[in-house]
């Protein structure tokens, strides 16, 4: 019989297992151990394991209501006088069983301290489950919600659990603490601290969850203050009373946890192998959760729609991925019942978002009241009415794609990419629809086109905004492929080349928006409107976007050029795959883009033509690539010097800066490597020069010597061929391989020759 | 396909209540769904009994090599099942 396949089998370990004793009088160290183990189980559950293998393995969890003084009334031990004491609610331990080192610990350690802690944990679990029941994250993918029909005391109110925890703390202070001091050794102070810190942490965590589960984000400020308390309790400095300072003090209680309890529960799937976290890992996990929760509390302070979107993008990119619970909560916070952050309507969000980017005429989003004011009490004419009707149609159709996009950013990384591919078509459709609305709006507002070199150009405020978002999605989908390791090294040229194109299109699009946003004639019209939004913020936002897109484009361009160049030198060889056809792969990679109305899909032929570059020498290619990285570096440095309010990064400026710095590092590392490669390349193609540079540096000298040796060997082997420089340069390739290292940024590698 | 009288007999047991005793003393009672050459048996709606302990296990496969005894209800003798 196979224990993996047969949960009813009796195992040897079952027979030797120590039975669980509910009535055991636990020592404080033992209670501490159970608390820690329960905490570990809880955090392991949060990392995605099932309840049956984590929290439900705690036997005490199944008997919480039975932990009462009555439980200990019938115990046969009469040696101790605590029987009388239990019947009185107040305990006075100090007098009687004083000097006896082996005196039995007061039952309050179990019926009060442990009970409060377990109940607190159960209630936390309950609140988390309530949040997860909303279905914001994929069940069984990130998180297991199956309760296996086991009651987790749903009727027990949270406030009662808080009261229990309070009582436990008070008792510990008045009686438990002194008892430990009296009976314990030198560790007793730490044990008291350990228990107190865990009780307070549990209380804080429960309070955080209670506050955050309130509708419309009303109590996030209270939650935030609890989070800072909890973080201190969890990870305090040396002198403070905290969980991380009081590890390894517990004493194991055999039988208190039964890891095989899942055998008794009905499950559709066999249990997965599980490794419980260590206490330190659990602490880190919880700290991460608190950080996420804290940032969720902070975004309530709404600054701008762009800022909110950017926050979500960076939150989604966090490593390690934020836990499933915080991602679910973020979704509920961002959008519940068509309310953004519990207070802003979708209309307002779309209005802000569009205004921040394209700065449409004021009349577009002016509300009825505002229009009344504008027209000085005159009747709202039909044109204005029609504009507002069209805008409402636009907002209605935008609602779903936009909130979907926000939701997607709250999923796990792989899911994000998959779902982005799915919704791309929605954005394409929306773009088409909004173009029609734009045209109608043009005729209503009698917009006059801008005269440009390429003819007349209308503003298309709404569809421009949609197109911008669509392009962001398209870029993100390709970039995420690098992070999720979907591409082989030999596909990098293709992907970065396509990204180069997309980013180029995006840049031009932003340029177009820029021209229309700063269209002077509009301001003349707007002059008489008071409180018209200033276009200055729009301009600075567009400029920051443009610089950002340009930086990315330069990096992508630099990377695909350097790879192409190395392909020419023979350092980088695409694998010869029997069943691989590059054009088919190309077709598959960009399949989702095929159905889109814009931008134009590039073809495989174009890729071949654009990346062949036979007419450019390898050295030139290296130099061009070098210049790309240098200009990317300048762009990034410019971005870094911008103010958070200019880039609309108020909510996530730290993450934005971190991202930029990572990109900057990629640039610098690539510049350094390129200079090395160019140097080497020059020395190879001009062997005579190379002899003069011998004394440059030891390391380099050695390298060159080695190269020369190899060259000599090659030359002696194929004397006739060695005469031409090209074969010489290729001869070096044999002992060096291209290496792509995503050590600084998950999307951009550092290219090295090793 | 071979169709011997034995196979016909086994087929007539399909969808009837079966009681299987396994080598470790457990008894499974469920609806007889399937059997193969190696006496592997599939029961649905199964309940597992170990002395007085009872639990529901649903659809299970009992490996033939752990089979001690297999009983099928006799519709003529057990009118309570009809």
From TrEMBL, chain A:
Compartments (UniProt record): Cytoplasm
The keyword Transferase appears for this protein: yes
Biased composition range(s): Basic residues: 700-711
Entry GO terms, CC: NatC complex
Claim: NAD is one of the keywords in the record: no
Keywords: Cytoplasm, Transferase
Disordered: annotated segments: 75-98, 685-722
Domain (NAA35-like N-terminal) ranges: 1-162
Main subcellular location of this protein, as a coarse class: cytoplasm
Domain NAA35-like TPR repeats: 296-751
Ranges of biased composition (kind: Basic and acidic residues): 685-699
One of the record's GO molecular function terms: transferase activity
Extent of Low complexity compositional bias: 712-722
InterPro entries: NAA35-like_N, Naa35_N, TPR_NAA35
Family the entry assigns: Belongs to the MAK10 family.
PANTHER family for the chain: GLUCOSE REPRESSIBLE PROTEIN MAK10, N-ALPHA-ACETYLTRANSFERASE 35, NATC AUXILIARY SUBUNIT
Identification of the protein by name: Mak10 subunit, NatC N-terminal acetyltransferase-domain-containing protein
Species of provenance: Gigaspora rosea
UniProtKB/TrEMBL annotation, chain B:
Signal sequence residues: none
UniProt cross-references to PANTHER family, sorted A to Z: N-ALPHA-ACETYLTRANSFERASE 38, NATC AUXILIARY SUBUNIT, SMALL NUCLEAR RIBONUCLEOPROTEIN-ASSOCIATED PROTEIN B AND N
Origin: domain of life: Eukaryota
Pfam family, one: LSM
SUPFAM superfamilies: Sm-like ribonucleoproteins
UniProt protein name: Sm domain-containing protein
Sm domain segment(s): 8-72
